[in-house]
Amino acid sequence: MSSSTLTPSTPPTEQDRPSAPAPRIVPRRRPGQWAAAVVLLVLLALAIRSVLRNRAFQWDVVAHYFTSTAVLRGLGLTLWLTAVVMALGFALGALLAAMRLSGNPVLRAVSWGYVWLFRSVPILVQLLFWFNIGALYPQILGVRTVNLLGPVTVAVVGLTLHEAAYAAEVVRGGILSVDRGQIEAAQALGLGRWRRSRRIVAPQAMRAIVPPAGNMLIGTLKGTSIVSVIAVQDLLYSAQLVYHRTYQVIPLLMVATLWYVAVTSVLGVGQHYVERHFARGSERR
Amino acid sequence: MSADLGEHGTTAEGGAPSEGNAAGAVRAVRDAADPAPGQAGPPLPDGATAREHRTPAGGAPAMVDVRSVHKSFGAHEVLRGIDLRVRAGEVAVVLGPSGSGKSTLLRTINHLEKVDSGRISVDGALVGYRRCGDRLYELREREILKQRTRIGFVFQNFHLFPHLTVLDNIVEAPVSALKRPRRQAVAAAERLLARVGLADRAASYPRQLSGGQQQRVAIARALALEPKLLLFDEPTSALDPELVGEVLDVIKDLAHQGTTMIVVTHEIGFAREVADTVVFMDDGRIVEQGSPAEVLDRPRHDRTRAFLSKVL
């Protein structure tokens, strides 16, 4: 009785015949998506038009100063400062991460304390503090502190110490992301501690380190603009020096902005290649 | 070594006098002394001390000698007095339910896991410690690493290095731990890859291989150090059923060539075919051990019977 309903009793319909072409699949229409896209593009076009037509931007002034010696020198200092702070910050950060992951409770506590302190204090406060360190220690090793620590040195020290606290966490996260079994396998093969870190753990940790490190690199590039408060002539401060003289505030801010955008774009491309390098072996093909 | 193996194999199958077999096989020497219930095992006429001085039947010295090893993780005692001996050229298969301490035992043998008490020797050398009077001092890491190069370990989840090619996975340890010239290590690695049937995958990355192929690479990687002892920790448990055979074939091949090995596995058929000795563990103890015929077909202990009835 019920079994008869389970067996196909009716003859195959037109569509079921093998000779008939398979029915074509038609995706669902999405009119809302189209409407949203059109509205957004119109708004964007209006915004771009207003920027290009607003004479107050003074694009001729922007073009004039874009490659001026003062601005390029400022750009050079910004790039140099970014590179030095990233390199020293990550070197110190890697050391702090290693301390935090060590078996020694004193090293662990010191590393934790460092990260806690330097992440807690605003970078502006830290910079002003190092700038005025002479008030605490008028002399260091017999040299007047003011002579020893010029504005650029203070900028490097202040930014590096701050950077290291964040870099430590990024590196630690990367190391923790490596499967414990990888280290055991390396131990079982008799690889020494240094070899394990450098050859097995570090390359795999890099996959987790590069994206946040890229974030930090771009953050640092723009963050160096804060050193204008201690009169270091970076990109932003160089632009400011010009507009203090000429009162062309907006065009010169545009000069600095365009340079920051340009460099950030280049760094983004670079990050793509670095990530691809460390992703080798991760694809199944 | 292979002659010795054959001789032993015949004894096991023929069900020869248990005494000779017992002496030749891995044996829980403390069984008789241990008062714990369910620790019966085959009754030994002589005490543990007497057995320690006995030379195994084939005349081969013990490659692995585990004596009253205890190990706890927190409050949980994982190993409760393990005694085990494996002769050179012998294949010992360790069976037992999950959580019985099989893997932990295997990991203590190359000091990936430290023991709480007891001692382990491989090829006559204490693993992980140096004896000085009545104390065992833990060795420096460098010395432990050197010991490990003589003990190959194959993991359940392979643990190949995913960022290195198959060839570099195999070459890494001989070059960095044994300081072999790279050219020589590469030649050896290529021979090993051919031996496990993967000569054409040297340039692949591990993730491009099937699980069975990855485990065969892992075996080749362990063999690259020319170890005196191979430890397998459930080498086929992470594999799809149709890939188990290719890995077991490689291990069987090694067994036939007289490699000393301890294999923790759930593959009863493999144990029956390859093992010289089957060791059954439960709850941190060795419940019984003997030839495959003894343990698998005529288990003496209820727990062994209960386990076998579930897995067979």
From TrEMBL, chain A:
A Pfam family matched in the record: BPD_transp_1
Any GO MF annotation of the entry: transmembrane transporter activity
Positions of the UniProt region annotated as Disordered: 1-27
Chief localization: membrane
Family according to the record: Belongs to the binding-protein-dependent transport system permease family.
Domain of life: Bacteria
Span of domain ABC transmembrane type-1: 75-268
Name of the protein in question: Amino acid ABC transporter, permease protein
Coiled-coil portions: none
Topology in membrane: Multi-pass membrane protein
GO cellular component: ATP-binding cassette (ABC) transporter complex
UniProtKB/TrEMBL annotation, chain B:
Keyword Cytoplasm: no
Alphabetical list of PANTHER family matching this protein: AMINO ACID IMPORT ATP-BINDING PROTEIN, GLUTAMATE_ASPARTATE IMPORT ATP-BINDING PROTEIN GLTL
Primary location group: membrane
One MF annotation (Gene Ontology) recorded for this entry: ATP binding
Keyword ATP-binding part of the UniProt annotation: yes
TM segment ranges: none
Family note: Belongs to the ABC transporter superfamily.
EC number(s) from the headed UniProt entry: 7.4.2.1
Positions of the ABC transporter domain: 64-308
Subcellular location: Cell membrane
GO cellular component: plasma membrane
Recorded catalytic activity of this chain's protein: a polar amino acid(out) + ATP + H2O = a polar amino acid(in) + ADP + phosphate + H(+)
Region (Disordered): 1-60
The organism's place on the tree of life at top rank: Bacteria
Pfam families the record matches: ABC_tran (PF00005)
SMART domains referenced in this protein's UniProt entry, alphabetically: AAA
Bilayer disposition of the protein: Peripheral membrane protein
Stated name of the protein: ABC-type polar-amino-acid transporter
InterPro entries: AAA+_ATPase, ABC_transporter-like_ATP-bd, ABC_transporter-like_CS, MetN_ABC_transporter-like, P-loop_NTPase
Top-level EC class as recorded in UniProt: translocase
UniProt keyword list: ATP-binding, Cell membrane, Membrane, Nucleotide-binding, Transport
Organism, scientific name: Streptomyces sulfonofaciens
